[in-house]
UniProtKB/TrEMBL annotation:
GO terms for molecular function: methyltransferase activity. It holds the Pfam family Methyltransf_25. This is Methyltransferase domain-containing protein. Gene3D superfamilies: Vaccinia Virus protein VP39 (3.40.50.150). It comes from Vibrio algarum. Residues 17-112 form the Methyltransferase domain.
């Protein structure tokens, strides 16, 4: 998805790129490598720890990359500041994604590009012999994520906020190991939370995990979630 996001960001020469929810800064570094050292790149994240790590990894070595601790719902930039703005796998965790989208569009220059990628966790499928229980568990996973259906809402929300010439692309992220899927989704902690809340019994959790671990050992584990990338012009 990263390479495609870079391709979609391009709209002529880019003088400045904003990465919202930049984490440890890898995407910012990728943008610098692709667009060249003449492009100013700013990474924003609400986590001070993430910003400190990103600065150590990339900010010190590459002065054209700047990292700032800030909320996407209150970006500390003037209107029409950036040539392009990128945001990936952030809006699903926010209580007010529309406010974040308004801010992303506000700080992007007229004619500039916006590229946003989000999962739709309602599309998650997991291979299991315990079909009814698996459907319940996928639903429990979904409701543990603040905006688990943001993927299907993304293009409409961006259009409602004025984004034009919208392009929509999908990517199915496939997981072939239980640990890999758990790292990406937080599945096991969601199950433990469900048991604590009484919406899932401990026996159900144990039986389901035993089935999945058995498939994992045999190389039969499979899970998939669809991601949506929406790009357009301000």
């Amino acid at each position: 998805m990263e390479k495609r996001s870079i391709d979609l960001l391009t709209n002529g020469g880019l003088l400045s790129v904003l990465d919202v929810g930049s984490g440890t800064g890898f995407d910012c570094w990728s943008f610098m490598i692709h667009f060249g050292e003449g492009t100013k790149i700013t990474g924003v994240d609400s986590s001070k720890i993430m910003i400190e790590e990103a600065t150590i990894r990339y900010g010190v070595k590459y002065p054209q990359i700047n990292f700032i601790t800030a909320s996407v719902e209150h970006l500390p930039f003037k209107n029409n500041t950036y040539s392009a703005t990128h945001c990936e796998r952030l809006l699903c965790h926010l209580p007010s994604p529309n406010t974040a989208i308004e801010e992303i569009i506000r700080v992007t220059k007229p004619g500039g590009r916006v590229v946003v990628t989000e999962a739709d966790y309602g599309t998650t499928i997991i291979h299991s012999d315990l079909l009814a229980l698996t459907e319940r568990l996928v639903n429990l996973l979904c409701i543990s994520i603040t905006n688990h259906r943001i993927g299907r809402q993304l293009s409409g929300t961006l259009a409602a906020n004025g984004l034009k010439d919208i392009v929509i692309e999908t990517n199915n992220l496939v997981f072939r190991s239980l640990n890999e899927f758990d790292r990406a989704s937080g599945l096991i902690s969601s199950l433990e939370s469900a048991v604590e809340k009484g919406v899932l019994t401990n026996n159900e959790k144990t039986a389901w995990l035993e089935d999945q671990r058995n498939k994992d050992e045999k190389g039969q584990f499979f899970a998939s979630t669809t991601f949506f990338t929406v790009a357009g012009n301000v």
